[in-house]
Amino acid sequence: MIALSPKQQAMQERERSILEVSRELVLEHGYYGVTMDQIARASGCPKGTLYHRFACKEDILVTLAVECIDRRSALFHRAAAFEGKSRERALGIGEAAALFGRLHPEDLRIMQTATGPIREKASPIRLMPLLEAERVAMNVLVGLLKEAVEAGDLELDHDGTIEEIAIGSWGLLHGGFSIIQDGIPQNLLGVSDPFHKLWRYFNRSIDAYGWRPLFDEWDYEESLARLRKEVFPEEAQALYGEGMWYGDRK
Prior knowledge:
Blueprint lengths: L5 H24 L6 H8 L3 H7 L3 H24 L5 H18 L1 H9 L2 H6 L2 H28 L9 H21 L2 H6 L4 H14 L12 H11 L2 H8 L10
């Protein structure tokens, strides 16, 4: 690792301070309720220095989103390293996302905010790390799909199958978790266990592609319990309780 000069360290510390203050402001007031002037005052950073580091508040937001995505991706990689079948590890990615979203809802809010118009306004130099972070996260799932094909767990029937499963699963992950966080299933549908319902829907959907073992051929509840105990013990117990490896179900 290359040692930073005192000036570089000071610049790094200043940027960290700006990001920490900005995160608090965005979570408290929302994207539209925060201005660069507020960030400058709250962080004690001269406006000239602030604009030298970040051209706009969108640059700050996408930088915060990168940090959140990287933290979640670290959980994805742990799931992918689980000693189990490819489909079990894929379910581990889903559990990783669930644990992350439920334990760190503020991080999830930051990630969900850094979309659409925010990206359009962000500087390319700040946007590129966000796109790369998302690519790395998606590639964990794509890598598992390729391993499933190589192991014979998943037989492709046409060229687009990996892409279909990847984009469909990714959309289910993000869209499903977003509506759960907003309370829509509970408030409008009376669903008391939305994460488990989403988990079952994913399994039934993936059965259509023949990703073996199929849902009715394998005890995936036990797989989840193993994943929580062996891969995510601290996170699982922080959410479900000590020794509660079956999560909300038992």
